[in-house]
Each structure stands twice: as C-alpha cells, then as structure tokens.
Amino acid sequence: MNNAPLFHSDGDSPAPRKVALAYSGGLDTSCIIPWLKERYGCEVIAVAADVGQPDDLSGVEAKALASGASRCHVLDLREEFVRDFAFPTLRAGAIYERKYLLGTSIARPLIAKEQVRIALLEGCDAVAHGCTGKGNDQVRFELTYQALAPELAVIAPWRSWEIRSREDAIAYAESRGIPVTASKAKIYSVDGNLWHLSHEGGALEDPWTEPPADAHDLSVTPEDAPDQPVYVVVGFEQGTPVSLDGRAVEPVALVRALNALGAAHGVGRVDLLENRLVGMKSRGVYETPGGTILSTAHRELEHLTLDKPTMRQKDALALTYADLVYNGQWFTALREALDAFVAKTQEPVTGEVRLKLYKGGCVAVGRRSPYGLYQEDLATFGADDVYRQSDAEGFIRLFGLGQKVAAARDRRVRREQEAETGVPR
Q1: Is 108 a catalytic residue?
Q2: What region holds the Arginosuccinate synthase-like N-terminal domain (predicted)?
Q3: Do 31 and 58 have their domain in common?
C-alpha cells in the first residue's frame, strides 16, 4: 500500500505537510490517519463534529491521538446545525424526491465548513475525508472545500487506497495497533444527527424486501405505537419553530423533544429509492420524527398565511432548493438568493399548528395565525353580508373568455372544412 506515488494537488506541488481530516472515530477514518502519515509523511489534524449523531464522542479525541493524529478538535455544532442548516431548509420546504428531508445532506456542508476553518487555523495545506467514490458525500465535502478554501489540496483515500472491504480495513487497523471495536459483519451503513437517522445496505439493497426491524433504531413500528393519539402544538415566528404547547423552546431542545415524541408514535419513517448525484439509484431507510412533525406543521401554517401565487412559486423553487442541498451546493450564490426569497415569503408565517400523532401518522388538526388569510365570513356556506354571489357571473364570463373565443374559432374551422370536403367532422 505504500508504493503509490505521492499526492500532488496540481501536478507540480509537493506532497502535503499537514492534513486536516474529517474524523468520525469510526473504522475508516481511524485507518486514514496512519495511511496519510505513511503515504505522505505528513502531520494529521483530526476534526470531529458533534451534530447530534448517536455515536458517543467522549473518547474520540483519545482514539484519534492513539491512531496517530497530532491533535483532535472536537466541535459542538448542534446549535448551528439546527439553526443555520436544518431550519432554513425547513422554511424553504425543501424535500428531495417527494420524501427525503435531507438529514445527511444538510450536515455535510457544516462539517466541511468547520473542517476548513480548523485547517486554516492549523496551517494545513490539505484536507481529507473518508467518503467513498460511490456516494454523494464526497461531492458535498469537496464542493464546500472549493467554495471556502480552493487553495487547499483534497485527499480522498477511498478513491486511491487498496482497502476495498471492511475486512481489509480491520486487518489494516490491527496491523498498525489502531484501537478497533468494529466487527467484520457490518450489516448497514448508518448516518445520524439531530435531524434524522439513515440506514443503507444489507437487506435493503433488494428493493422488494420489506425493511427489517433492525433497519430502524429511533422509532417504534406504527403497529407497536400507543393505541391513543397524542396532540402537540408547534409555534412559529416567520417560519422558524420557536415553541411547543405554548412554551418557548430553544432549537436543539425543540428538535430533541419532537424526535422523542414522534419516535414514540412511529412518526417519520421513510423508505426511499433515490437518485444519487453520481448517477445510480440507491435505497435508504430514513427516520426523521421531529423533522416530519415540523415539516407538516410548517406546510399547514403556510396554507393559512400565504397567498396562492406566492405559495405556488415557493413550491416550485423548493424543488430547486432541495436539489442544491442534496448536490452539495450549499455555499452558492443561488442558495443565498433562494434564502432571500424564502425569507420574504416567511414574514407572515407566524402562528401555531396543532398536530395529532397516531400510529405513524402526523396530521394537522388545527392552525391559527394573526396573519391568516382565511376569513370565515367569506368562506361560509351560511348567510353572509360580505360576498355578493351575483358578482360571480361576470367573473366567470371574463375568466372563460379565452376558452369561449377558442371554441368559436374551432367551430368555424370545422364548418369551413366540412363545406370544402362534404365530410362531417
């Protein structure tokens, strides 16, 4: 493995001296530390990000140092993740391919941004990640590097090293004295944070197979959820969630509370065959209980507070926003421009939504806002003094004028053709 040529970022520059590695503490990134040192003779700075994943990060610094890193920065990014990445995506209404609430996608640009910050702080001349050459995450990391620090060289070991399997990685780690707790039987590829938990691989690679019970770690099955529904009221200010049941709650605590509530009722399970950016379809099982509750509530509040053309345009641009996030294009002028549009649309999106959670379902059963556009005296089927029904006659006549003109033209053309051919049309 050590006979490969040294890395050159542009064909002429020397091998990197110091590399900042996006470090999770798992098997792959633990192997990358000695691999970088052996291949390039460089110093390695590990950067571990806490975005609310289920992994215990208490020993990650010690493990990084034991694996050969010079230093390890452990960053608590949970607040920033929810406030500046998850909530803006929620406000935009961005959902990838009808189902996916973008849990992994929104975390990667933040992790890469902070990795770049540490790399520049430490005087690194390169950054590295442990993403495979088949996945989307390599693109998300590297587009962020290019946007924020294009002068840094990029190293992606999975695209060049000889490790090809979990067994290879375990053998490599053991031969270098790297602490290993992983087993050779890895059923799923798992990713998690405050927003979601995902499973890929294993039995899920057959799209005909129902997801096994062990493909869900957050939520109960809807069948095992309580037999009585629970109600929760979510409050928003300009499209941002700010309260639960009338009580102000900070972003991280709010998401945690809704995750626990939704998971207990089987809410937020998604089984998706998605189109990866690299061109293949993959299957992912996602659990996003809190995000599902918030997305449902936010959408319902927009139904109450947004006018028709604004909501239509926002829905159209939400698809673009979702693609940008999924494709790793967070740090782009277009995403910033879309955020400006979203911010304007969210000015009236203030109020509360009451939701009913039951057996995997999440349904809005009440909504109210001081900026609501619904007027009962206009919509009522009872007697009213504000809507003159006779006005509808003129409106319909004008609204259908174009159709009426086109129909008259078609009748005239048919008559002329019948007169010429003698054949009824």
Answers
A1: yes
A2: 18-179
A3: yes
